[in-house]
Amino acid sequence: MELFLQDGPMNQSVSRELEKKLNWLRASVLGANDGIVSIAGVVVGVAAAGASAGDVLIAGVAALVAGAVSMAGGEYTSVSAQKDTELAHGRDPHHVTAHPWAAALSSMAAFTAGGILPLIAITGPWQEVRTPATFASVVLALAITGWWAAKVGKGSKRKSISRNVAVSVLTMSLAYAVGAVLGVTVFA
After folding, report:
1. Structural domain boundaries, residue 88
2. Which of 94, 98, 123, 143 has the fewest CB atoms within 10 Å, i.e. is most exposed?
3. Considering the domain boundaries, does residue 5 fall inside one?
């Protein structure tokens, strides 16, 4: 990013602040979107196989825990590599923009917050419409996160929303198809 800015102390400071903001935005958006989409895919797929609400909840909670820890570990590892690279290329330790623990915790929290939505939607008291309720809530949630990411990043809201919604519909549709085709409950 510094390549696009004129050299000078003020522009370097602006560049570092932009890098920090982008790192935080990426970790938060990725974590929330992945939580929503991953957990929705798991619970919709398990529900399509004919599992009870309790079994769907168990699968969803297990996926939520595994996904949150995996996201945190992935963020920590990748941002640590970024930090190491910044230091290896001579960046002053006080000006390093990569913060591995902050990225890991941000991603874990965002994944968990996002993943709770499809769990509520699929296991709520509306069991006769649990799958359409989950599809609708996930599409709405990802439209909101797409809008928010574009607003914070000053990008195209339409493109951001479209990407998020397309990915979620594709993920849930494929997971539902796998569950329906297999048609077995592995928890019985």
Report:
1. 11-182
2. 94
3. no
